[in-house]
Amino acid sequence: MKKIVAKQVSILELFYDLIFVYAISRITMMIHHPIDGSLPPRIYIEFIIVVIFVLQIWLYQTVYINRFGTSRAVDTVGLLISMFAAIYLANNINTEWRLTFHAFNLSAALTTINLIFQYLLGSSTHFKRDHDLQGFIIALDLEFILLVTGLIIGYQYGVYLCVAGGLIGFLMPLVMYRIFRPEQVNFPHLVERLSLIIIITCGETLVNIPHYFKGAIYSPLAIVIFLGVAALFGVYTLLVERFLNHHQHTRGFIAMYTHVVK
């Protein structure tokens, strides 16, 4: 089978990732403020939902560039619009959903409709002839409809539709798994993009552990924390660089969804 030639990650893609550095920092803030010394289960559930919501948007953009992007005007403009919306999205991440309901979900809706147009305009094949394109468009359409409907209804009931929209956008490709073609995926590029989001997450971890590194340099707690973070990153690096075949023909779904869990 023909070896896959890795698609180069563009500078604009890396610039786009910088916004998600901020988004991840905002997400981690959701679990930094215990109530009476602990965090209620509701906060953890909200945290997981927001992680899924934000990362599925990042994944759809990454998948588009991976499968269809060729640095044309439609790709550049679409990515810039996604960046603009992502800044508003990230800035409205908190545990008080009522306060930022409209701003957050309007940003998500703008990103979703922008992705729909990118997939429609940026693919080199016709919609009716490309099952991959059909699958992603169906998932994004359903997400967009639920987001807009939730915004029209308002927070009290609309929040459930908006959450459902994000979860459907995340899970629908799994439901339609078999229609996607492995040969359309540039797996080396996908692995590199997924590794970058893990590095961003590890960077946020390093930003949040320095307050344990006080006093004596041989503090047992600081040593254990540092070794734990280093071990996690080391195991990930070993798995990706030594045991993962970067040039295999695969749909890439296992890699994408496991990275969200990580």
Task: Give structural notes.
By secondary structure, the chain is mostly helical. It is built from nine helices and no strands. It has helices at residues 11-29, 41-67, 73-91, 97-122, 131-153, 155-175, 187-208, 220-243, 253-261. The two termini are 31 Å apart. The model has no long low-confidence stretch (mean pLDDT 83).
Q: Any key phrases for this structure?
A:
262 residues; mainly alpha; 73% helix; globular
Report the sheet with the most strands, covering strand number, pairing sense and barrel closure.
none
Average pLDDT value?
83
Helix vs. strand class: mainly alpha
Whole-number radius of gyration?
Answer: 19 Å
Q: How much β-strand is present in the residues?
A: under 5%
3D shape: globular
List SSEs in N-to-C order.
Answer: HHHHHHHHH
> Total number of β-strand segments?
0
Give the terminus-to-terminus CA distance. Answer: 31 Å
Number of helices: 9
Assign a percent range to the helix content: over 70%
Spans of at least 5 consecutive residues whose pLDDT stays below 50 are: none
SSE topology:
Blueprint: H1 11-29, H2 41-67, H3 73-91, H4 97-122, H5 131-153, H6 155-175, H7 187-208, H8 220-243, H9 253-261
Brief summary of the model shown:
This protein is mostly helical and 262 residues long. Helix content is 73%, strand content 0%. It has helices at residues 11-29, 41-67, 73-91, 97-122, 131-153, 155-175, 187-208, 220-243, 253-261.
